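SEQUENCE WITH STRUCTURE:
===
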Amino acid sequence: MSDTPNRHQTDDPDSGAHEPALDNVVISDELKRLRERLGISQIELGRRVNRSRSVISNAESGREFSRFLLDELRKLDAQFSEATASYSSDKWKPNSAQGEDDNDAIDEMFLLRSASVAAVSGDWFALWETTVNMSEVLNVESIEINALSRNRIQISNKAISEDNEEGGYLWTSECRFFDNQYLLGTYIALDKATRSKGSLQLALHRSGKYIEGQWIGCNYDFEFANGLVVMARDPDHLRGRMEIHRNSMKNQLS
């Protein structure tokens, strides 16, 4: 019998001890599957495990072997599953005294009621009701939605709208995703000299092709401005969806 140790019995934590060897294709497929299941971007994963985005990308494409990333993603996935499974409704008591336990309960409630944001990530177009010089205008913007974590997204415009060059500005927002449908968050102008900021209340259409909602905030014209917004993957659908959205809001108020 040889005295040479079997490689699956090594103490090296990166060698895949006690588990059959996995090739790069299998590991890269599982890396991407787990990351998308958690709803985090390659950039966000890199921050969590102290690796660059290029390392994550190379591992997911199979260009580099990274058992370390696979182990870390499995840990994150296990932590999420444990947090969700251990949640019970009696832990959420709105009338209880404020404290660390309440904060934990709120975090767990957000986690349980949040959905993967992968479905809404990418390029969209938005049509906003807003004002310029006290007159209502509709302006179209090209926007981008990026996943920040499993239940948080960032929405930003790519450029100032050509429909509103006088009153337009670059902005960014951060929203949380609830119940596979609702997006709640805040927006703010990137230029510190522009005071525009406010809140967003949005809903993902059941088809997944549209996002509709409203905004409220301050702008050049008013301290308390508000309007409707629709978002779509195809800009040709924006005005038709805005008409449907307006009629729906009127019917709710009638």
